[in-house]
Structures are given as C-alpha cells and as structure tokens.
Amino acid sequence: MSTNNSGAGVSLPVQERAWNTRVRILDAALSCLVELGYAATTVAQIQARAGVSRGSVLHQFPSRDALLVAAVQHVAAKATTEIAAQPEFAPGPDAIDSGVERLWATMQGPLFAATTELWVAARTSPELQAVLEPQERQLGRAIREPIARMFGTEISSSPHFGELRTLLVSSMRGISLTYAFAPRDPSTEPHLEIWKRLARRYVQSGG
Questions:
Q1: Which residue, 3, 79, 153, 185, has most beta carbons within 10 Å?
Q2: For residues 146 and 106, is the Cβ–Cβ distance under 8 A?
Q3: Separation of alpha carbons 77 and 30, rounded Å
Q4: Axis crossing angle, helix 126-142 with helix 64-85, rounded to the nearest 10
Q5: What is the domain extent for residue 51?
C-alpha cells in the first residue's frame, strides 16, 4: 500500500515536467514558424530553441507538421481562454465599433502570421492538409463564443450575428494577408470604417 502511495506521490511532478517540456517545444515551434517560415523550420531548430532532445520532440509529436499545427492550436487556445476570462463588454452606443476593433486586433501578431504560414504551405502539401483541416474546423467552432463576447450579448443575440461574424472574419483575414508584404499600422486600416458601417447596418437592420 505504501509503495502505491509513494508512486502516486511522484507522478504529479513527472507529469508537470512533461507538460512544461511540451509547452517549451510548442512555444519554440511557433517562434521558429513566425521568424523562419514553414519551409525553413526544422525539428532540429525547434529542439535547439526549446532546449530539449530530439527524442523528447519526437516522443510527443509524430511529425514536424503535427508539431507545427499543435503549436498554432496551443497559442490559439490560450488566446481563446484569455478572451473568455474577460468580463463581457457592456452594451453602449460604441459597442459595435469596439467589437469590430477588438476582432481586427486578433488578426495581428504572431498567431495570425504562423497560421498564414500553414495555410499557404498546405496548398501544396497533402500531408499538412490532412493534419491542418480538422484542427481548423475545431478552432473555428471554438472561437465563435469568444468573438460573441467581444461584441456583448445584446449585439451577438441578433439573429444575423452569425452571418456577420463569418463575413467579418473572412474579410479581415483577407486584408491581413496583405500586411505580409506591405507592413503598416493596422489602426489606420481604411477597411476598419467599412467593417464598422457594415456591422451597424447588419445588426440594426437585421441583416
């Protein structure tokens, strides 16, 4: 009995170390993907940046593509959790405009850059497509509620909010892609005012 208790006592630190190693690997993979791009990112570079052995990487991830997709999903999950933990934004005259600005802000930074690398690479890689597609569908479902929280209950309860959300996300992703070759201040993006007008009309007129 005492042996079993002793074993249970040491299992948690082992699990914590394994989880910490996994997080280091995922963080290293994301930074490599953003800085070097998909084609130039290798398992060797990831393991060196994470400070772990190659065996530690391959033990947790069967392939480079699986690792890179997991890294993007890991960061997306953290961002989603952070948004969900924030208090819901109160309704007001500027709630729609603020919601559009908050949604646009999520299209900036390393997460979108890394995701773009995978999207482009998947076009010519059936192996990456097979790994990425189900994860993208899962992420699409996971971000619906956080986006609704950005706008607040009053706006997100509009019968056509789902259509508006899809339209805004699709359009913002397309515009964000142009920042890869034409960097600029996203706060001055001309489409921001277009998206805000569109959102107001959609919510206020019911579609």
A1: 79
A2: no
A3: 13
A4: 10
A5: 2-205
Residue 32 to residue 38: CA distance in whole angstroms: 8
Contact in structure between 142 and 77 (CB atoms under 8 Å): yes
Average per-residue pLDDT for the chain: 87
Alpha-carbon span 41 to 128, nearest angstrom = 14
Residue given tokens 């791009």 in the structure block: 37
Question: In terms of DSSP H, where are the helices of the chain?
Answer: 2-36, 43-50, 54-60, 64-85, 95-105, 110-122, 126-142, 144-151, 153-156, 161-177, 191-205
Residue 7 has pLDDT above 50, yes or no: no
pTM reported for the whole predicted model? 0.80
Query: How high is the pLDDT of residue 76?
Result: 87
